[in-house]
Amino acid sequence: MAEKDIDLVLEIETEAYDRPWVREHFDREFENPIAYMYTVKGTFEGRETLAGYIVFWVVYGEAHILNITIKDGFRRQGLGLYLMLHVLDMMKANRVDDVFLEVRKSNRAALELYRKLNFKESYERKKYYGDEDAIVMRLVFNEYI
Ligand SMILES: CC(C)(COP(=O)(O)OP(=O)(O)OC[C@H]1O[C@@H](n2cnc3c(N)ncnc32)[C@H](O)[C@@H]1OP(=O)(O)O)[C@@H](O)C(=O)NCCC(=O)NCCS
Fold it and tell me: Which of 1, 7, 119, 133 could form a disulfide bond with 114, CB atoms 3.0-4.6 angstroms apart?
């Protein structure tokens, strides 16, 4: 992800969430030495366009995925899986042992995506989103296929 992508990223983010990240959240992560941000492109009417992104942290062999979003209209085409596989491969190559993330209990699409990648449900954080509990999921790399 580059600074020039931010306007499109914010559009996708605002469309996707009730409480979207705002520009300052992304700006903070650009400055954060442990943060990594990637985008994925899709094709719409013959033209390549930014279709999604991922933000994660890596600290001492542990990764935390903070945000993965695919633009509505590009979903269910394998882009989320592609992006996750890409960053998981990078993490593995960089000796990350465990990957954590939080997901809303009701977010079936995300839960199914993470289960497909062999993330396991670890525990719940009550009212993490204010109105809803989060499920903390963990991937241990020696279990990753
Ligand atoms: C979750 C999200 C990133 C998935 O991205 P995607 O590109 O649509 O997912 P993919 O097409 O790569 O799907 C991979 C697998 O995930 C699961 N999956 C994805 N969307 C699903 C849905 N709506 N219902 C059930 N399973 C779903 C399926 O197992 C799917 O494999 P399949 O298509 O062979 O059945 C996308 O739905 C999204 O951006 N949602 C809004 C933002 C969000 O909730 N982010 C996650 C926050 S924790």
Answer: 119
